[in-house]
Each structure stands twice: as structure tokens, then as C-alpha cells.
Amino acid sequence: MKNYLLILPIAFLVTYSQLIMKWRSNTTDQFESCTFLQSIAKLLTDPVVLSAYCAALIASFGWLYVVTKLPLTVAFPVYIGITIVMVSLGGWWFLSETLTATKIVAVMLIMGGIILGVSADA
User: Fold this and answer.
1) pTM
2) Residues 5-51: pLDDT tens digits?
3) Nearest 5°: CA angle at 39, between 33 and 44?
4) How many CB atoms neighbour CB 100 within 10 A?
């Protein structure tokens, strides 16, 4: 069980990365008069976006460590499930995205699957 906790910081870093990228890409007014390459250049020079890329890079290195400690067939679904839950909640909390009853049920089913997956491996 202790090794499964290693997934949490990776999921947090990936969630941060996804939320930041969505937040910064929502500022469409700064990209309206730009070409695609100019928009990319603006994003790549944005320190907040760069922090999101750094978080994703650190998460990928952390993932390399996790897969040495856990079976991939359990670690990957748990990682994806936790990330989906955190991105859904973060999108609702920080980005004011809609969290419908269907999404809440889906998140609860994902959490149930994570619990089943971890307990089946224990």
C-alpha cells in the first residue's frame, strides 16, 4: 500500500500541468491577432506555462521510479484514475467548469475502481 502513495505526487504534478495549460490557453484575446507559431512562441515564453512543462517533466521522471516499484497493470490505472479525479475537481474549482451529476457519478465509479484495483493487488 505504501508504494501506491508514490503515485500521488505524480498525479498532483500532472494535474497542475493540465490545469495551468488550460487556464493559460483560455486567454484567447492575446492570441487573436497571432499566427499559430506566434501563439506557440508566446506560450513557450510564458513563465507559468514553463512551470507546467517543468511539472510534467518532473512527473515523468517520478513515473519511471514508480514503475520500478509497482506492477504496471495496477499502477497505470490507479495513476490515470487519480489524475482524472483531480483534474475534474480542479477544473470545477479553479476553472469554473461544469461538474454535472453524470461527471460526479463517473468520478465516484473511478474512485471505486481504484479502491478495487489496489485492494485486489494487496
Assistant:
1) 0.84
2) 899 999 999 999 999 999 988 775 666 778 888 878 888 888 999 99
3) 150
4) 10
